[in-house]
Automatic annotation (TrEMBL):
It comes from Shinella zoogloeoides. The lineage of its organism: Bacteria, Pseudomonadati, Pseudomonadota, Alphaproteobacteria, Hyphomicrobiales. It is found in: Cytoplasm. This is Glutamate--tRNA ligase. The gene is gltX. Binds 1 zinc ion per subunit. A motif ('KMSKS' region) lies at residues 253-257. Residues 6-322 form the Glutamyl/glutaminyl-tRNA synthetase class Ib catalytic domain.
Length: 485
């Protein structure tokens, strides 16, 4: 992938479980590179120091590798334009920011977070979109120097033209025009010296010689800021291509609040990575009915970036199930099938750890399916009757589930110890004993009130599967509230 001048990248932020949307954008870039005999690069954008973690970065690498995507340069393998992790590049960005300020295109802003929030609240109350009001834009050089020398915290913002509009040609949407009045005076450098996403993104793409930036359509509105930064630095911008977002059947944005979105969820449920990539790749090609089953090489051959749909990519789980079934039946030999099943069962030591926990809890092997089978199920088939032995009322169970879900979501690490600590903290917040909180969770996670130890089971299943099971349980219990069940 390196004999042409085409260089593309996927640049995820390691702030949570890798999203199927990341795989969708990564696959487009990967196929674009293959089609053009170019180079596909992985870059980790971890400028959000409060949410980025090494655990999530590793999950990004593991998830994209599971998908069958291979990069020529990245944080794990290096390359000629590294480092490929933004936190390792912190000292690179400051000279670029200083150049923008020195040339009169940026300014230091001393507004406090409290002042900015009051400003935004006032703008929203007046029915205006919230954006910086320019208070620090006209500070004198003497005033700025005085406040900087006094150690006053500040950020650096970019100046925005006051008239006209930004016109550019997008590789998918064609000619686009966005008025400058709709563009905010973006922060370029934060008070801690780290660049914002926008600043680092432009500098890194320039230094890594990225020729085409293909990303989700949610970034379309940011293009004027990026083009301005390129102009302020005297640099040539890449070709921008904004892909339609993946959506649910009702056209709503695909989000973890509604549906499972983590790549690890689909891996844990036993989907083949080839089938998932096949499914996502169909959004980028034009084929006749009956030609849906395609390998990565076949996808690259049929890939046509000149003929992309703007209508939106519908994440149809039934079609994914159908494709996965065809892959299992038609593309795997019996030996392949058995090997894949064993690999799936052993993923993250699921079976090994489950059997360890089961050994002291059974009197014969035949009891294993009932005791530990939930570790391998894609759907527990949860019903209101499953909660019959839980002594709490449906209202109390729903309160527990609604408290626990967001509490677990914010955990930076997913271990037995951290899960137990967080659930104990959840119980304290609810003013309930731990056993009262744990009882309905046993049912939500395993489908039964008799199961393997809860904290261990949650650790084995993984964050994405636990998230979905708690969501399903909350829906079941919500149907019980007021029904007398």
């Amino acid at each position: 992938m390196s004999t042409s001048g085409v260089r593309v990248r996927i640049a995820p932020s390691p702030t949570g479980e890798p999203h199927v949307g990341t795989a969708y954008i990564a696959l487009f870039n990967y196929l674009f590179a293959k089609k053009n005999n170019g180079t596909f690069i992985l870059r980790i954008e971890d400028t959000d120091a409060t949410r980025s973690t090494p655990e999530f970065e590793q999950k990004v690498l593991d998830a994209l590798k599971w998908c069958g995507l291979e990069w020529s340069e990245g944080p794990d393998i290096g390359g000629p334009y590294g480092p490929y992790r933004q936190s390792d590049r912190k000292d690179i960005y400051r000279p670029y920011v200083d150049k923008i300020v020195a040339n009169g295109h940026g300014f230091k802003c001393f507004c406090t977070p409290e002042r900015l929030e009051q400003m935004r609240e006032a703008q929203r109350a007046a029915g205006k979109p919230p954006k910086y009001d320019g208070l620090c834009l006209h500070l004198s050089a003497e005033e700025v120097t005085k406040r900087v020398d006094a150690g006053e915290p500040h950020v650096v913002r970019m100046k925005i033209p006051t008239e006209g509009s930004c016109k550019f040609v997008d590789g998918v949407y064609g000619p686009v025009e966005i008025p400058w009045e709709a563009v905010d005076m973006q922060v370029l450098l934060k008070a801690d010296g780290m660049p914002t996403y926008h600043m680092a993104n432009v500098v890194d793409d320039h230094m890594m010689k990225i020729t085409h930036v293909a990303r989700g359509e949610e970034w379309l509105a940011s293009v004027p800021k990026h083009i301005l930064i390129y102009q302020y630095l005297g640099l040539e911008p890449p070709v921008f291509m904004h892909l339609s977002l993946m959506r649910n059947h009702d056209k709503s944005k695909l989000s973890k609040r509604k549906n499972p979105t983590s790549i690890s969820y689909y891996s844990a449920l036993g989907y083949l990575p080839e089938a998932l990539m096949n499914f996502l790749g169909l959004f980028f090609i034009q084929i006749a009915e009956g030609e849906e089953l395609l390998t990565m090489d076949q996808l690259a051959e049929k890939f046509d970036p000149e003929n992309l749909s703007k209508a939106g990519a519908i994440f149809d789980i039934q079609k994914l199930d159908w494709l996965n079934g065809r892959w299992l039946r038609e593309q795997l030999t019996e030996e392949d099938f058995m090997q894949r099943v064993l690999e799936w069962a052993m993923e993250n030591n699921r079976i090994r750890d489950g059997l360890k926990l089961s050994q002291s809890r059974i009197s014969k092997f035949g009891e294993l399916p009932d005791l530990a089978g939930f570790l391998l199920k894609s759907d527990l088939g949860l019903t209101p009757e499953a909660f019959a032995k839980v002594k709490s009322t449906p209202e109390e169970i729903l309160e527990v589930l609604n408290q626990v879900q967001p509490d677990l979501e914010k955990m930076p690490e997913w271990t037995i110890e951290s899960i137990e600590a967080e659930l104990r903290a959840s119980a304290d917040r609810l003013g309930k004993k731990l056993k009262v909180v744990v009882a309905p969770l046993f049912v939500a996670i395993s489908g039964s009130s008799r199961s393997l130890p809860l904290f261990d089971s949650m650790a084995i299943l993984g964050r994405s599967v636990v998230r979905q099971r708690l969501k399903v349980a909350a829906q079941v219990v919500a149907s019980m509230v007021g029904s007398g069940k």
